[in-house]
Amino acid sequence: MRLAALATALAGVFLMGAAPPDADHDPYAWMEEIEGARALEWAKAENDRTLPQLKNDPRYPGLYADALAIATAKDRIPGVSFAGDGGLWDYWQDADHVRGVWRKTTLDSYRTGAPEWRTILDLDVLAKAEQANWVWKGASCLPPEDRLCLVSLSDGGKDAVEVREFDTAAGRFVEGGFRLPEGKHRFDWIDRDTLLIVTEWAKGDVTTSGYPYIAKLVKRGQTLSEARQVFAGQKNDGGYGVQSIVLRDPAGKVQAVVIMRPLDTFNAEYYLLAGDRPLRLDLPKKVSIQGYLDGRVIVSLEEDWAARGMKEGDLVDFDLAAVRKAPGALKPALVLRPTESQAVEQVATTKSRLVVALLDNVKGQVLSFRRAGGAWTSQALELPKDSTIAVASASEADDRLILSIASFLTPSSQWLADAAGGGQAEQLRTLPARFDASKFVTEQHWATSKDGTKVPYFVVRAKDIAYDGSNPTLLYAYGGFLVSQTPAYAATVGKLWLEKGGVYAVANIRGGGEFGPRWHNAGLKLNRMRVYDDFFAVSEDLISRKITSPKKLGIMGGSNGGLLMGVALTKRPELYNAVVIQVPLFDMIGYSHIGAGSSWIGEYGDPAVPEERAMLMSYSPYQNLKPGQPYPKVFIETSTKDDRVHPAHARKAAARLKEYGYDYVYYENLDGGHAAAANLNERAMRQALEFTYLTQRLMD
């Protein structure tokens, strides 16, 4: 879904001219200059001070070796997707290809278990030749052939990318082809000689959160200065900048181009391009356009559409031809209305089918819809139960699907399914076991939050644990941006934590998408404390069941989940003895003026609005840190190259803790982007550092 994608893309850039509120009273405002000499000197000194505490632990080398073996294993499942010619794409990283190789094979070859791969682009070779720290950020290919692709390359893992046109048949970049300098671009193919691009055309052509808002058509051979404008938002628009949605039929022919103008994080206006003229579509402001099939545009609703009798969470469609005639009189039809326990997690289209990945009490299933006689009918695909099921790729040349299936203890598997024929899917791959899962069991429990809401969470534990509060337990959560926390194979957690005697828990708190938009909307802005109350309720439930105790309970979260960790630290420190705060937001009074913060106002609220500022002030970790509190020793980590959540949040958190005399561990990776790791080696190091810290705090 669009909102889910936006969540994992919390992107932003630092705006040099913007000062946070109360900056004059913030002694650490200088840390907001991302690569300022003083800030980098401070970060390096912190790394030098604290990393030896972890790396010199005799357990660290073993944890790093195990993490690296898992990260670089050559028997991982390739993340293949359908190419237009019927082949399969894959981007692969291992110990020999640390940065990665873009490659291709045929389905028949892949089915043999030992496919013959053709290398398209080797990023390690490219980075060495260009003496650049390139990180792969994907390729957008022109259907239906998928021969010409726009490859996105990131310097060190930033969200900002350089874009180059690549010929996959020739295996080289196109000389004189389309090319964009580093930036936070949005782009789509219209045809082989035309792109629709949203970028910073002239210096300053970005919103206050650093995203482009002007869309232009660029023809092959034109310079960017010769592009023709077709749409413009406004500089004070929120969200992630203007984006285009190109709707094509299975043959690759463009049927419509829709422009999304975000008003804030979740509200947007939609326009149908009629030549150079944008026609406003009569859609609610909180929707996601999911696809196009048989002349129908598929839309999911994140709010009620009372005027049309539709509810938040519904999947609807409308006739494109009718809308062309009257864009202001859109008439939706219901495709699917989830129950209270369900949520539409993912939508895809094949040549003739609409495919929906559905959650039911945070357990997955896949429905295949067919439209006939003006109505949709569905059938469930025969797939493993009680698992997370994701559509990894959907073919528009036919009705085949590649599905990823996962659970905490069963190694992940990859399946080939027929959305039209139904029947039993074919298993293509199974991940080898990374730890001995025979000793463990997964349970789903429900905690009761402060307002009486039942909140589910998963526990992965040894079958024979003692219920005496003695079990070292790691609790993970996110709680924002409609992102669901579903079961996934616990490869690294299993090897580095469960096998060492730990318990692992995942909380499905409000703010996420586990029960659709209602679950997310319940934790927005003035209702934000519900998210944190849910997390505290799960923590207390783990303790009351005597699975663990405050002395043995650790928590972990990143980005928005890092904010959650900061709130837990400052609001309920007595519940925890370890807190891993990954690439966090922390200063929620200054956040809207730090980097891309204003793009998230739809989630958290606006510090400039008194009522919303009061709510933000009530939980903002940076403002709520106090001396003399029972804070555990925390582990804060960030990345200098993170242009989503500005590293100043983590820096200022550590500086304030030091000011108040607290002990803590701080790690700032100079590369890595929002993932805090630019390659597999860095990822393994980060994981080993985290679990060394957790072992010291909860197992010693």
- Structural class call reads alpha+beta
Helix content: 10-25%
Terminal Cα span: 43 Å
Looking at the structure, what is the overall shape? globular
Question: Characteristics of this structure?
Answer:
single chain; 700 residues; alpha+beta; Rossmann fold; eight-stranded mixed sheet; five-stranded antiparallel sheet; 15 helices; 37 strands; 32% strand; globular; disordered N terminus
Q: How would you describe this structure to a colleague?
A:
The radius of gyration is 25 Å and the shape is globular. The two termini are 43 Å apart. 50% of the residues are buried. The protein is an alpha+beta fold and 700 residues long. It has a domain at 53-69 and 443-698: 3-Layer(aba) Sandwich (Rossmann fold), CATH 3.40.50.1820. An eight-stranded mixed β-sheet has the order 30-31-33-32-34-35-36-37, sandwiched between helices. Strands 5, 6, 7, 8 and 9 form a five-stranded antiparallel β-sheet that branches. Strands 1-2-3-4 form a four-stranded antiparallel β-sheet. The protein contains 15 helices and 37 strands. Helix 3 packs antiparallel against helix 15 (680-698).
What can be said about this structure in brief?
With 700 residues, this protein is of the alpha+beta class. The chain has 15 helices and 37 strands.
Write the layout of secondary structure elements.
Blueprint: H1 2-8, H2 37-55, H3 60-72, E1 81-82, E2 88-92, E3 101-105, H4 107-111, E4 118-122, H5 123-130, E5 134-141, E6 148-155, E7 161-167, E8 172-173, E9 179-183, E10 186-191, E11 194-198, E12 214-219, E13 228-232, E14 243-248, E15 254-262, E16 268-274, E17 277-280, E18 287-293, E19 296-301, E20 315-319, H6 320-325, E21 333-336, E22 342-349, E23 354-360, E24 363-372, E25 375-380, E26 388-394, E27 400-406, E28 413-418, E29 426-430, E30 440-448, E31 454-462, E32 473-476, H7 491-496, E33 503-507, H8 517-521, H9 529-544, E34 553-558, H10 560-571, E35 578-582, H11 601-604, H12 610-619, H13 621-624, E36 634-639, H14 648-659, E37 664-669, H15 680-698
Parallel strand pairs: 32-33, 32-34, 34-35, 35-36, 36-37
Antiparallel strand pairs: 1-2, 2-3, 3-4, 5-6, 6-7, 7-8, 7-9, 10-11, 11-12, 12-13, 14-15, 15-16, 16-17, 18-19, 19-20, 20-21, 22-23, 23-24, 24-25, 26-27, 27-28, 28-29, 30-31, 31-33
Helix pairs in contact: 3-15
